[in-house]
Amino acid sequence: MARLVRELMQQTGAAPSDCLGVGIGCPGTIDAISGRVIYSNNLAGRVDIPLAESIASALQLPVRISNDANYAALGECVAGAARGCRSAVLLTLGTGVGGGVVWDGKVFEGGPGGMELGHTLLRTGGEPCTCGRKGCVEAYCSATALIRDAARAARSQPQSRLNQLCGSDLSRMNGKIPFDAAQAGDPAAQEVIADYLHHLGEAVTDMVNIFRPEIVLLSGGICAQGAVLTEPLNRYVQEHAFAGRWLKTPPVCIAGLGADAGLIGAACLLDG
Amino acid sequence: MARLVRELMQQTGAAPSDCLGVGIGCPGTIDAISGRVIYSNNLAGRVDIPLAESIASALQLPVRISNDANYAALGECVAGAARGCRSAVLLTLGTGVGGGVVWDGKVFEGGPGGMELGHTLLRTGGEPCTCGRKGCVEAYCSATALIRDAARAARSQPQSRLNQLCGSDLSRMNGKIPFDAAQAGDPAAQEVIADYLHHLGEAVTDMVNIFRPEIVLLSGGICAQGAVLTEPLNRYVQEHAFAGRWLKTPPVCIAGLGADAGLIGAACLLDG
Questions:
Q1: β-strands A88-93, A97-103: how paired?
Q2: Who among A46, A133, A242 is closest to B246 (CB)?
Q3: Chain-chain contact of A124 with B210 (C-beta, under 8 angstroms)
Q4: Shortest CB distance from A211 goes to which of B46, B111, B133?
Q5: Per-residue pLDDT tens for B39-88?
Q6: Which residues contact B101 (CB under 8 A, 6 or more apart)?
Q7: Among A6, A193, B36, B251, which residue has the least CB neighbours within 10 Å?
Q8: What pTM does this model have?
């Protein structure tokens, strides 16, 4: 990573004195204060490495580090769909469900191991989650969960369009097929999507009841669905959030920067 | 309220110049920035009154206002069971379930209508909650919920000690009887308590996964049970929290200041 930064500096002709520092967004459990990566599935489980210190010593530049979803939320506030907002909650709907919170214009870190918004419950004793619990948001709202439920529906209803669209090979099921099949009027797919939206509505309502941010953002491949997601979600949240009758609820929107959100957020971090 | 403050100042011989100001802890949805009480069940629903401004103008003193559970959490950090902690989450287990969060030594307010930690889900579609949703923490972990479940068990198992202890008058069921009956070996009561502890364990695990505070505190009448609550809860959280295998989870303890916590917290608020 340090070598890559040096190469980039050479390519752009930037001297170390031109750089405020290096911001690192990393998946998993980060201790932002000590700059350590404590635990990350994507870096072989328990690691506990002093990543910030290592990179700082190699480059002789200040380094700050946080969870990648935190930075994506910050990037969206600086230059994306939450531009101008001082607070936002971002949920990333991918293989898992990540969460990032910006409060008062800054990343809200929580303690190390916290801000795992995808690992809060929707249904105690429900679907098994990657974290070892049962019934977490991740187990219902990730793309993985949607694919699981679509494959189940296809298996139990072989005449469904869900089967046709993956050529009767359920290993080819993806997060787009159930939306396409539902749109084409397939009842099995419509049930899968209704369930998915219900669970996502509940998850977003929880985030609203906890933080009441100015905006809630969703990112990840599923968000290509746009208003198919956000219209029912906005209705759901207004109807179900605490005191939703009296208080306007924050808008639920699709994030705007894709994979750049984390880069922009990590770069901004050296500002504050 | 202003009259009461004036009387207290007279009784103690304090001049307005001796007072830093007035801190008000109020149940319900507070906008701490504008100082308005927006919504409170205990103040006739929707109120939207500028309480801070009214009291400030009557007393000619600065006024700050927040939700009462927030102040209780702050009070516990200053002078109670969380003394010395810079972060804490407090759940109040009473008629409902309130929540307060202290972060970096200060009340973390969230936006108006937020920090409703009792109105996050444990079971989508579950028991009806006072907020209109189904399956919230409040619908399983409040004293009201425990009493409901104990009365149900007593009704379906008339030979149970639960019935004996309330003289077969279920309107006399309270939050202590199911613990007493369980301790005396009554199977129906033991099941009620096991369920209650399971749900409370799930709720606290969620708070740990979201905030990862230094400590989690419980308050309310049920907390007279002491270690009967905290021992199983601490085991549950260590076992089920995110990365609990790798990271020590925060201790779950009983709050120390009772009803004084909110008073102390509200007084401290003028400090920051």
A1: antiparallel
A2: A46
A3: no
A4: B111
A5: 876 666 667 889 999 999 999 999 999 988 999 999 999 999 999 999 99
A6: B70, B73, B87, B88, B89, B90, B107, B108, B110, B115, B117, B211, B213
A7: A6
A8: 0.94
